[in-house]
Amino acid sequence: MNEDETTDTVLRYDAVGKQFGRRDALRDCSFALPRGRVAALVGANGAGKTTLLRMAVGLARPSAGRIEVLGENPAATGTPAGVSYVAQDKPLYRRFRVREMLRAAAVLNSGGNWDGAHAASLIADAGIGVGQRIGELSAGQRARVAIALALGRRPRLLLLDEPLAELDPLARREIMGTVLAAVAETGMTVLLSSHVVTDIEDACDHLVLLGDRRVMLDGGIDGLLAGHRIHSGPATSFVDDETVVHRSNGGRHTVALVRDHEPAAEPGPSGSAPTLEELVVAYLQAPAASDPEAA
Ligand SMILES: Nc1ncnc2c1ncn2[C@@H]1O[C@H](COP(=O)(O)OP(=O)(O)OP(=O)(O)O)[C@@H](O)[C@H]1O
């Protein structure tokens, strides 16, 4: 890694593991995000996405390895200044009206970069009135308030746990548009967990794929897609090929996701670029496979 990359790193996991009791939830997870990346954290239910995010803000401690967030160790310091985290359950005071929530956020963030006008304008843009009670908002509207408050802190790193799960397709688009506008304006870095690949396809430029309790893939999405091909051939194809991530058999025909562009079998398999969905699904179906360069 060159010096620029080192100094530009906003978030780094270095051989991080997490045990709950005697059970490994995560093992040997390493990846780093430079400034300005919009990264998707993808994995099956229970893969460890929430745990990974919580460790970055000091809400859980790694059992092994080290996390560095904006140059700090959250296990020692708690949530580093400059980081906004929106948890999956969007914790807000349900009895508060939106304007009271904005006032509370102003007090809680008084030592930081709090920009109440920005948060209020994002809430207004979502069509939510400041007189509305949080408990009476829909789940999607609560998500929009939570994200507006997170962006009002003008963070350098935004961590979002399943931000789009409860939103309708238009609201998903609008939220990601808001987040990407903040990225363009400030160079903020984003790590967001999601199950829905189509949601991240347009918005994210980086993928961290969790499976089998570890990081299976990590890198720029364009590079990861360019580094894999879908090949198809007779059922006997691809059997002993180490570059095959996953093969699925349909009668006399096999379709395989293959690393590194290598034609994987004879006779003459055809190849095409995978979609992000095909890439993710193939890795999740093949938990033993991983990108050797991600290790
Ligand atoms: N506080 C805890 N105590 C014990 N086990 C836990 C705790 N928190 C998480 N786990 C376990 O760690 C694993 C990872 O959980 P985590 O919530 O991080 O996964 P996830 O990828 O966010 O899942 P989902 O997509 O379903 O939200 C799971 O097996 C879960 O049961």
From TrEMBL:
Coiled coil: none
EC number: 3.6.3.-
GO molecular function, one term: ATP hydrolysis activity
Domain ABC transporter span(s) in chain numbering: 11-237
Chain segments annotated as transmembrane: none
InterPro entries xref list: AAA+_ATPase (IPR003593), ABC_transporter-like_ATP-bd (IPR003439), ABC_transporter-like_CS (IPR017871), ABC_Transporter_VariousFunc (IPR051782), P-loop_NTPase (IPR027417)
Entry keywords, A to Z: ATP-binding, Hydrolase, Nucleotide-binding, Transport
Residues of the signal peptide: none
Protein name (database record): Putative ABC transporter ATP-binding protein YxlF
Underlying gene: yxlF_7
